[in-house]
Specification:
Blueprint (H helix, E strand, L loop, with lengths): L2 H4 L15 H6 L6 E6 L6 H5 L10 H14 E11 L1 H4 L3 H7 L4 E10 L14 E9 L15 E3 L16 H11 L5 E4 L6 H9 L2 E4 L4 H15 L2
The structure holds S-adenosylmethionine (SAM).
The site of S-adenosylmethionine has 22 residues, from loops.
C-alpha cells in the first residue's frame, strides 16, 4: 500500500515534525491502514500540573472519544493502540466510557512506567508513575505481541526538565520496546498528539513509517527557546 493511500487526502507528511490537529489527521487516514496508534492526549491544562503556562491546549472527553472512534476505524484488524493515562484517569470512569463506545477496541493489558527519581509531593500519594493501556482492535489475539518477556512495570528515568523537548515527554526506551513488540518494519504508526516527537525518532531508528502532529508544535518550540534563554543567561 503506498504512503499516499494510507494517508488518504491528507495534507500531512510522513516522517516529519509538524503542526496539526489530531482528529483531522486521523480522519484523513484510510480504513484498516495503521499498525499502531500512540495516543497520549492532553487531559488537563499543564499549569494545573506544573504551575507553568506552557502553550498547550487540553482535550475534552468528547474530543478524545472522537479520536478513539477514528483509531478504531483506521487500525488494521488486531493492531494496537497505546493509550497513556495518569493516575487521575485511573480513578474515574472516563476510559471505560470511551471504550464502551468503541466496541472493536478492548484493553488487553496494562503497563506502569515507574519514573524512578522523581521529586515533589502529590495531593495524596506522590506521583512517580504513569500508565499505559495496551488496547487491541478486534479480533484480539496475544500472538501479535512479539515480546514474551515484557514485564508490566517498566523502570526508566524521566529526563531532567532541561533535556526534555516537552513537559510530558514519554520514555524513549519504553517506546522503542513497545513499538518493536507491536509492529514490523515499514508499518505505519500514527501519533496524533506528538509533543516532543520522540516517537518519530524511535520510528526512524526502527524503520517504521511515522505520521504525527501536535496542535502547538510551533508555539511550544518558541516557548522552549525563550525558556532556555532565561535559564542560561
Ligand atoms: C501529553 S502531551 C504528548 C507528549 C508526547 N507523547 C511526548 O512524549 O512528548 C499531549 C500533547 O497533545 C497536544 N494536543 C492537544 N490538543 C491537540 C489536538 N487537538 N490536536 C493535536 N495535538 C493536541 C498538546 O499540545 C500536547 O503537546
Amino acid at each position: 500500500m503506498s504512503e499516499k493511500t494510507e494517508l488518504g487526502k491528507s495534507e500531512y507528511s510522513l516522517n516529519t515534525k509538524q503542526t496539526g490537529e489530531a482528529l483531522e489527521l486521523l480522519s484523513n487516514c484510510e480504513n484498516n491502514s495503521v499498525s499502531l496508534v500512540f495516543l497520549d492526549p492532553q487531559y488537563e491544562p499543564v499549569r494545573n500540573v506544573l504551575r507553568t503556562d506552557y502553550p498547550l491546549y487540553s482535550q475534552s472527553d468528547y474530543q478524545i472519544l472522537r479520536i478513539l472512534e477514528q483509531a478504531e476505524r483506521v487500525l488494521k484488524p488486531s493492531a494496537f493502540c497505546l493509550l497513556w493515562v495518569n493516575k487521575t484517569l485511573l480513578g474515574n470512569d472516563r476510559v471505560p466510557l470511551w471504550l464502551l463506545k468503541t466496541p472493536s477496541l478492548k484493553i488487553v493489558d496494562f503497563l506502569v512506567w515507574h519514573k524512578k527519581h522523581t521529586l515533589g509531593l502529590g495531593n495524596w500519594l506522590r506521583s512517580n508513575a504513569e500508565f499505559c493501556f495496551l488496547i487491541q482492535k478486534y479480533p484480539q489475539s496475544g500472538k501479535l505481541f512479539k515480546n514474551r518477556s515484557f514485564g508490566n512495570v517498566w523502570e526508566e528515568n524521566v529526563l531532567p526538565a532541561n533535556k526534555r523537548q516537552h513537559p510530558h515527554q514519554k520514555p524513549r526506551e519504553l517506546i522503542k520496546a513497545l513499538i518493536s513488540a507491536t509492529t514490523n518494519e515499514s508499518d505505519l504508526i500514527i501519533d496524533p498528539c506528538a509533543g516532543s516527537f520522540v516517537v518519530l525518532e524511535v520510528c526512524q531508528e526502527l524503520k517504521r513509517k511515522f505520521c504525527g502532529v501536535d496542535l502547538t508544535f510551533k508555539e511550544l518550540k518558541e516557548f522552549q527557546q525563550k525558556k532556555s534563554i532565561y535559564a542560561n543567561p
